[in-house]
Amino acid sequence: MSKVRKWLIPLIILIITLVVARFILDNPPQTQRGGPSNASQLTVEVSSLSPQQFTVVVDSFGTVQPKTQNALVAQVSGQIIYVSPQFRNGGFFNKGDILVKLDPRDYYGGR
């Protein structure tokens, strides 16, 4: 009895599957196409685009760090009498630019 059930149940499932597949293939679904719907139609406005320049402002916050950082150390002491405008946070300067001038009286005997 057990061997009969082992083969009979899959055989019944296979036969049912074949009958359903045959029914589906012989009776494909019918499409019902109609005319345009009676729903209201949308009106669309179209405009041509042209390239334009504009400024984008981005508000943000954070910490800014320099790309390079140097420490300036004086080899002599003296009173500072001139500081270059470029000698500030974020300032740029080139090799040979004078950033700070010291009072020459300290080195030339008060002349």
From TrEMBL:
Please, which domain of life does this record's source organism belong to? Bacteria
Task: Give the stretches traversing the membrane.
Answer: 7-25
Tell me which UniProt keywords the record has, alphabetically.
Answer: Membrane, Transmembrane, Transmembrane helix
Q: What's the protein here called?
A: Membrane fusion protein biotin-lipoyl like domain-containing protein
